[in-house]
């Protein structure tokens, strides 16, 4: 995010539900409704005592690392993608699961509702032809099979929204979510190996030791399945992206949000960039990204290796909050220059946390040749409960199936 980030990342940031999860813990009934939008301090604040922190690169072990890391306070599984029907109708989707550690250890309690973790999910669908954006969220404690995650067989779920490994691993994976008259039922494969972001998977986001996350991605996931809109079930194919992060305190105190983007280029390469924003609007030096080649090899990009310029803005009809809404992105060493435009201007998730995350298209040139692509952008920290700028909103939600 990254989301992103991050969506969103994703974007990202499920810790924003900690306050609400703590309150829900004390009740012998299902969790309370999701509260109003939280500011960045609320979302990412709180004690880190007793939780592990991302301090140094570590070996990644799969399939274990596809599953939860309860020693860390926050993590997410973040899926986004662009889909088309056979006649060219476009859809974008986001399905994100967040795990939030409320306490580092479990206090013995008789209640069957007792748990030290909460799970939140966001689900969004962009119907470009229908000019419609839909978004929803769910929140449950990790008790009584309401929500959870496991590495083998791979599953993460919140109620009846889920990501479930088809053969037990994280890819291929089946995504299922439905809310109102929209739904997805998609199977994602993986055309490239895991990409470790940052320094061998350690992604710093501030000066202080531990202000970092462990972060990896599956950057090109061929997708197929079905999208349902207003009762009509449509067969679709396309490309998706998956981001995985876990951390305890990922953002520096002087940061107010981030802009994250992931673009799948038509030449088979994949580009991820995120720009951490300071209060004065400047980009923090820990902003970074990666360029993934056709064969899956990747190159880390530091802030000096790319440039993101905002060309246009969009104002939310909810309160006038302004978001970037068109970008020029350049990676000079690759002679890559892209114009990135949202599929729809209004892809704002006005949920418990408020942020913009949506499908985009890219056109431009690479090494002197025409280039195009598609992807997702997440904009966090622009709107809050008061509608004032520099407040954080976090990523997406979706509902899962219960444990087998």
Fold and architecture overview:
The protein is mostly beta strands and 404 residues long. It has one domain: AttH-like domain (AttH-like fold, Beta Barrel), CATH 2.40.370.10. Helix content is 3%, strand content 48%. It is built from 2 helices and 23 strands. The chain has helices spanning 18-25, 40-44; strands at 74-84, 90-101, 117-127, 132-141, 147-150, 155-158, 161-165, 173-179, 182-188, 195-196, 202-204, 212-229, 232-247, 255-265, 270-278, 288-292, 298-302, 307-315, 322-331, 336-342, 348-350, 354-366, 369-380. Strands 1, 2, 3, 4, 5, 6, 7, 8, 9, 10, 11, 12 and 13 form a 13-stranded antiparallel sheet that branches. Strands 14, 15, 16, 17, 18, 19, 20, 21, 22 and 23 form a 10-stranded antiparallel sheet that branches. The model is unreliable at 1-45 and 385-404 (pLDDT under 50).
Oligomer: single chain
Terminal residue distance: 31 Å
What is the CATH class name? Mainly Beta
Number of domains: 1
Fold topology:
Blueprint: H1 18-25, H2 40-44, E1 74-84, E2 90-101, E3 117-127, E4 132-141, E5 147-150, E6 155-158, E7 161-165, E8 173-179, E9 182-188, E10 195-196, E11 202-204, E12 212-229, E13 232-247, E14 255-265, E15 270-278, E16 288-292, E17 298-302, E18 307-315, E19 322-331, E20 336-342, E21 348-350, E22 354-366, E23 369-380
Antiparallel strand pairs: 1-2, 1-13, 2-3, 3-4, 5-6, 6-7, 7-8, 8-9, 9-12, 10-12, 11-12, 12-13, 14-15, 14-23, 15-16, 16-17, 18-19, 19-20, 20-22, 21-22, 22-23
Kindly summarize this structure in a few lines.
The chain is mainly beta. Helices cover 3% and strands 48% of the residues. The chain has a single domain (14-380), classed as AttH-like domain (AttH-like fold, Beta Barrel), CATH 2.40.370.
